[in-house]
Each structure stands twice: as C-alpha cells, then as structure tokens.
Amino acid sequence: MRNPWLDIPLAEYEGHMALPAVRQAEMLADELEFAVRQHSPKSIALLGCAGGNGLDRLVGTGVERVVGIDINPAYVEAVRSRFRSRIPGLELYVADIQCALPQLSPVDLLFAALIFEYVDVAMTMSSLQTVCTPGGALVIILQAASSSLEAVSPSPYKSIRLLAPAMRLLDQADVQNQAIAAGFSLASSRVVNLQSGKRFIVLSFRTEH
Prior knowledge:
By secondary structure, the chain is an alpha/beta fold. The chain is 26% helix and 25% strand. The protein has helices spanning 10-17, 24-39, 73-83, 121-129, 172-181, and strands spanning 43-47, 65-70, 91-94, 107-113, 132-143, 184-193, 199-207.
C-alpha cells in the first residue's frame, strides 16, 4: 500500500497542524525546544521532519549538527530551502525510518513526534538504536487514545483524510517495552493536554550502551 505521507502537500499538512482547533504545530515545536534544553545535545535528528517545524528554535543553541529525515522528498526539499542558510551543515535525507536509515553518524538526540503511529514499532526502534550515541536520548511523542475525539482531527484540507486508515494509536506500555527491547531505558514520561481535548504522551529514553 502506498504511504499516504507521499500524497499530502506540505502546505495542507502545515495548514492543518496550525488550525486553531488543532494547534499541534506549536506544541511540537515547544516539545522539541524542551527536549534540547533537557538533554543538551550537540547533535540532533528530527525524524519525520516535514517542513522543519521547530528547527528555528535550534538557531543559537548549543546544537552543532542537525539531521532531518522524512519519507516525502518534497518535504525534505522544503526544509533545505528554508534552513540551509540558517543551520550550517544541515544534513537531510529521504528515507523510511522503519526500513533502513541512511548511513549517518550517530546523534545525541533523536526526536520522533507523531510518527510511531504510522510505522512498525519494533523495526523502527531497532533502526534508531543504531544511530543514537552512547548515553544519547530518544524522545517520542504519541497521541493518546480518546473515546470522544477522532484520531485525525476534522480538517478543511482534504488530503489529511488519507491518514485515517493508516494511523494506529499505540499503547504506551507496548512502546516502552519495544524501546527497552531495542536497548533504550525509560528516563521520563509525561502528558501534554491541548485545548482541543487531545492528549499527547512524551516519552524520554536513554541508550544503555
């Protein structure tokens, strides 16, 4: 089955995430900034980088190396256009993170927001472990299940509807167990609540090697 992320124009995705009733773009940028403050990495990889939401928060921090990975080539080119002059040495790759990550040097922080809902968790955890430095961190943001809200928020952007059949809301304990099996250890977990009523789980892991 074709990956739906290949058929969603970046403008529609970003428009959807910025909707007043959604407001997830701001939350994700805030969480990226918080993860950098919490872990003080010298290098970071943004997995499912889309158009680079939050990368502007890294300018002027102690982060010296920034890697962006996405399955959609158009998204990657948008990040290149927007940030190549602002983030020296920006590394960008088109890849499906659950299959095979590109050949890249390990990073201190892996930031994976709202992507595990669309990938094989075990396969992806194994891939990520290979590109995380000893003592490095993995921060995952999951959408919590709700009995009253649709998993994919209603949107005027029609292409967003393509995500519903592919999206799987995950059990927090299962994700934690898969991470531990891949060589990570849980450092912290917390819940972020949005005005829309949606809840998000932020999991922070460390590598054990």
